[in-house]
Amino acid sequence: MKTRFHLIRRNHRGGTFYCTDTLTGHRTSLQTKDEAEATQIVQAKNQALRQPMLNLQIAKAYLAGSDSGVNTRTWQHAFDAIIKLKEGETKARWMRASCEEPFELIRNRIVIETKAEHFLEVLQDGTVSTNVHLRKLHNFCLDMNWLPWPILPRKQWPPVHYQEKRAILEGEHRQIIQAEKNVELKMFYELCWHLGGSQSDIATLTAECIQWDDRVIAYRRKKTHVVSIFHFGDEVADIIQELSTAGPLFPRLALMHEKHRAKEFKRRCNGLGIHGVTLHSYRYAWAERAKNCGYPERFAQEALGHNSKAVHRAYARKAQVQLPALEDYEKAYANKNIIPFDLQKGKLNTKTTLLGGENEKTTMADNH
After folding, report:
1. d(CA 29, CA 100)
2. Closest Cα to residue 189, out of 170, 216, 166?
3. Do 140 and 175 touch, CB atoms closer than 8 A?
4. 258 and 278 in contact (C-beta within 8 Å)?
5. Inter-axis angle of helices 88-98 and 75-85, to 10 degrees?
6. Residues linked to residue 220 through DSSP beta bridges, in sequence order
7. What is the C-alpha to C-alpha distance for residues 58 and 37, in angstroms, rounded to an integer?
8. Local confidence pLDDT in tens for the 368 residues of the chain
9. Neighbours of 123 (CB within 10 A)
10. Which residues have C-beta within 8 Å of that of residue 195, sequence separation ≥ 6?
């Protein structure tokens, strides 16, 4: 058999050694100036082509010196390790994912003996969820050094295609409110519309989260554990005043699992002929309404979270906004019809004199 890989040296004295592939002509640096070390690497490359199974056993023998479980660890063991690290709903999702039928193809297969074609079979038989969780499982094993190299190169993974999600329209929201007979659910949907929070965060709000003096609702998000702070207006104030003054604002909904709240909303939408929306659509709607009225993106990020997909989607492409002409903006600023926003205090500058009349107030954020 003709030797495929050859050793060369860039400079005759003291240069770095390179490996040349005679089949492709590609030259790769071996990152060493030691001839004995470079020779051993090239020999290993050639030997790997001649005896692939033998080399796998040699690699396992070397890895077993630092990892005693390399010869017995299966993908089910990897699933179990991830599940132990998760909590709450995330843990439940991983437990459901580990039971998906496509993973039966690799569940009991040794991790280090897995080939790319095994992954492709799983991806072919699976869904979007299978693709997402297999990626995370693969990366977890790489990070734990349970795999010495990627099984499937990053660019060869099939792309993840999610179903298109849209914001709920104001007309659709009004239909739902008018048709809903349950007062608690009706108020819940109204707060989702005005606050744009996730359904679990809104459903578990308590009266203690409300600061009436500053008209602020502050709570810690269940998903990210980051504190969200909303300033509310008169419409939200009217809704909150009709709810409990102590403990959970929605006592029944707070005890309900999120999937049951989602099913309740889905039944209502189906009855009204509204399709393509979920409770999370209220979050998209809030972000798009903010973009449409010129609400600064950094304020929307503070409200919904800097990593919120709803904010990124709305401000990147989804929502459309008409920008005023610069000359009109300058004239309004000169006439002091624009109320600058005090970023340090987070409040409107009340010292600004409005000369355009009481009914001609324009609020914009100060960009300084």
Report:
1. 43
2. 170
3. no
4. no
5. 170
6. 227
7. 18
8. 578 889 998 776 678 899 998 888 888 899 888 889 999 988 888 877 766 655 666 666 556 656 667 788 999 999 999 999 998 888 989 999 999 999 999 999 999 889 999 999 999 999 999 999 999 999 999 998 888 788 988 888 888 877 777 889 999 999 999 999 999 999 999 999 998 888 888 999 999 999 888 888 888 888 778 788 888 888 989 999 988 888 999 999 999 988 899 999 999 999 999 998 999 899 889 888 888 877 777 777 777 766 676 776 676 655 555 555 667 767 777 776 655 544 444 444 433 333 333 444 444 444 33
9. 18
10. 202, 217, 230, 232, 236, 286
Label residue 2 left, alpha or beta by phi (over 0 means left) and psi (-120 to 50 means alpha): beta
Q: Give the count of alpha carbons within 13 A of 254, CB side only.
A: 10
| Distance, CA of 311 to CA of 285 (rounded, Å) | 10
Q: Are 183 and 107 in contact (CB under 8 A)?
A: no
Any idea how long the chain is?
368
H, E, C per residue of the chain: CCCCEEEEECCCCCCCEEEEECCCCCEEECCCCCHHHHHHHHHHHHHHHHCHHHHHHHHHHHHHCCCCCCCCCEHHHHHHHHHHHCCHHHHHHHHHHHCCHHHHHCCCCEHHHCCHHHHHHHHHHCCHHHHHHHHHHHHHHHHCCCCCCCCCCHHHCCCCCCCCCCCCCHHHHHHHHHHCCCHHHHHHHHHHHHHCCCHHHHHCCEHHHEECCCCEEEEECCCCCCEEEEECCHHHHHHHHCCCCCCECCHHHHHCCHHHHHHHHHHHHHHHCCCCCCCCHHHHHHHHHHHHCCCCHHHHHHHHCCCCHHHHHHHHHHCCCCCCCHHHHHHHHHCCCEECEECCCCEECCCCCCCCCCCCCEECCCCC
Q: What distance in Å separates the CA atoms of residue 330 and residue 125, rounded to the nearest whole number? A: 60
Count Cα atoms within 13 angstroms, Cβ side, for 50: 11
Residue labelled with tokens 């989602």: 262
